[in-house]
Amino acid sequence: QVQLVESGGGFVQAGGSLRLACAASGRSLNRLTMGWFRQAPGNEREFVGCVSGSSGETYFLSDSVKGRFTISRDDAKNTVYLHMNRLKSEDTAIYYCAADNYSWDGSTLYRPVSEIVYDYWGQGTQVTVSS
Predict the structure, then answer these.
(1) Which of 125, 83, 84, 78 is nearest to 99 (CA)?
(2) pLDDT band, residue 52 (cuts 50/70/90)
(3) Residues near 39 by Cβ (< 8 Å), separated by ≥ 6?
(4) Do residues 2 and 97 lie in contact, with contact meaning Cβ atoms separated by under 8 Å?
(5) Closest CA relative to residue 97, chosen from 125, 69, 67
(6) How far apart are CA 77 and CA 71, in angstroms?
(7) What is the pLDDT of residues 71-101, one digit of tens each?
(8) 23 exposed, middle or buried (CB, 10 Å; 0-12, 13-18, 19+)?
């Protein structure tokens, strides 16, 4: 069983930055694929990005976050981070981290972008960006 605890959400003005953390327990990050999702009010939950446990490769689907968001990992702390820069009001959402027991190797042949492939979820953390 994997437990995920997010932190780092909050209120920030447009153009600012936030770093979200997702602390995992129960399994080492290098054996998991870690994903970040978000859900804005009235919208369905959407994929933000993911990181391979084995290769460290990251992937972002939407052009709206590419170049602004990055993902890093601290294996010593078994924690994954979502670094969000140049935040916009449309980034306002509840952000969730998720873990997939399948260890994606970073290959372009498969992208773990669907929430149905993730086995464990954190409780979510609110990010509010004021314009």
Answers:
(1) 78
(2) very high
(3) 45, 46, 93, 94, 96, 124
(4) no
(5) 125
(6) 15
(7) 999 999 999 999 999 999 999 999 999 999 9
(8) middle
